[in-house]
Each structure stands twice: as structure tokens, then as C-alpha cells.
Amino acid sequence: MPFRDLLTATSLQSVTASRAGDTTSDWRQALPALAGSMVTLRELRLSDATALLTMLSTEEVARFISPPPTTVEGFERFIAWTQRERAAGNYACFAVVPHGMDSAIGIFQVRQLEPGFGTAEWGFAIGSEFWGTGVFMDGARMVIDFAFDTIQTHRLEARAAILNGRGNGALRKIGAMQEGILRKSFLRNGEYLDQALWTILDEDWRAQRVIWGVRVH
Ligand SMILES: CC(C)(COP(=O)(O)OP(=O)(O)OC[C@H]1O[C@@H](n2cnc3c(N)ncnc32)[C@H](O)[C@@H]1OP(=O)(O)O)[C@@H](O)C(=O)NCCC(=O)NCCS
Predict the structure, then answer these.
(1) Taking the alpha carbons of 67, 71, 96, 38 in that order, is the dihedral positive or negative?
(2) What are the average pLDDT values for consecutive 10-residue runs of the chain, which has 217 residues?
(3) In angstroms, what is the span from residue 115 Cα to ligand 1's centroid?
(4) I need a surface site. Which of 63, 86, 104, 216 has the fewest CB within 10 A?
(5) Which of 53, 158, 169 lies closest to 106, judged by CA?
(6) Does the CB atom of residue 56 touch ligand 1 within 6 A?
(7) If you measure from the C-alpha of residue 165 to the centroid of ligand 1, how many angstroms do you get, rounded to a whole number?
């Protein structure tokens, strides 16, 4: 599956244009910049291509995700595609930029699995030098808030290859629930891998947010 379709794995649902004239219209014009305690999430820029190539094309990052582009031009094409899909209201891709830096060190993506984003899927990848630093949790909270508060998702899915210890550990830590195993659902390097299906529901997220005491709406 092409990298642009998602960093986790396949979805059988078709991606179709979402309803026009709903609350999603603002983010379709430009993604908001979201500031956390460690990172800012913002729209991708073509100038992020070189940094993303360095961060995301390494063996350890790409091991369990759809193959990332292998050239700067490939990332530029991916970035241009993300902007078209955002403008069409199908998909959002945020660059992860640590405070004090200008360049992107990773991405978070959300795409609709049905028109109107009721069910959506998210995926993420961060340069390995930033693993275990808290950057994932900081960015993940903001992108999940964005999914539930801005684009009105009610069920957010993620798929992670069972062998992907960090991916599954990160999803468990953020509070996702493992609903089941999707057997041999992801083709990687000529081999079909099992994936875990992880979900977060809007009501669960709101309840968890109250317990954390952050950004209670
Ligand atoms: C997925 C990713 C964004 C997570 O970011 P991260 O900084 O590594 O995540 P964190 O360190 O905050 O959390 C990972 C958790 O998994 C745990 N973990 C690590 N290896 C593990 C393993 N083999 N089995 C189980 N848990 C594991 C970590 O200990 C950590 O939990 P802790 O903080 O409670 O100790 C990052 O690892 C990445 O970009 N990976 C490559 C791309 C990818 O796989 N994307 C996800 C597809 S689902």
C-alpha cells in the first residue's frame, strides 16, 4: 500500500469525499497549528521533504509501516498530495516540530473511513532519535483532540503490526483499546503480517481527558 494511504496498514473502506458545508470547512482551508508542551503540530510544507526523508526513511522507522518515499522528490509529491486531500476534506496530515526547531521530525495522519469522518483512522511516525522522549504522547493527545473536537470523529481506529512493539505500546499508553487481531492483513516485504486493531471512542477520550485534568472542554 502506498505510504500516503497510511502509515499503519490497509483499510478496505473506500475513501470518499465528505459532506460539504459542515463544521470541517475551516481545517480544509489550512490545518491549525497546535501547540503542546514539547511540540507544535502544523501543516506540512514542501520544505519539510528533506527532513522527513532523513527522519522517516530509516530501517527502524519504516520496518512496520507502508514504505515511505525514498527521495526528497518523493516526499515533495507526498506533501503535495496531503494538501490536496486536506483541501478535499478527506484527510489531515500534521508535521511534528519540536519547540526550538523548525524542521519536521515526524507526522501524524488522520483519514476518514466513511464520509464525514464518523469513523476515522490515524497513523504516525517519528524519527527514532525522538522515540521515548514524550514527543509521541504530546502530539498524539493534540491530534486525537483534533479528531474528536474539530472533525467530529466518534470512533478513531489504528492498526499496528503485532510485531511492532513500540507502535502497540504507544497505542496502549495513549488509552486505545485493542479490539482484535486482523489476521494477515498487512503485506510488508512480501509477507502478510497480523495487525492489532486499536480504537478510541469520543466518549472514552473525553472521560480520560477529565481524569488527566488537561484541556477539559
Ligand atoms: C510509534 C511511535 C510514533 C511511538 O513513539 P515512541 O516515542 O517510540 O513511543 P513511546 O516511547 O512514547 O511509547 C512506546 C511505548 O511502548 C513500549 N515498548 C517499547 N518496545 C516495546 C515492545 N517491544 N513491546 C511492548 N511495548 C514496547 C515503550 O516502553 C513505551 O511505553 P512506556 O513509555 O510506558 O515505557 C514510534 O516508535 C515510531 O515512529 N515508530 C515507527 C513508525 C511506526 O511504527 N508507526 C506506528 C504504526 S502503528
Answers:
(1) positive
(2) 55 37 71 98 98 98 96 98 97 98 97 97 98 98 98 98 98 98 96 98 93 60
(3) 30
(4) 216
(5) 53
(6) no
(7) 6
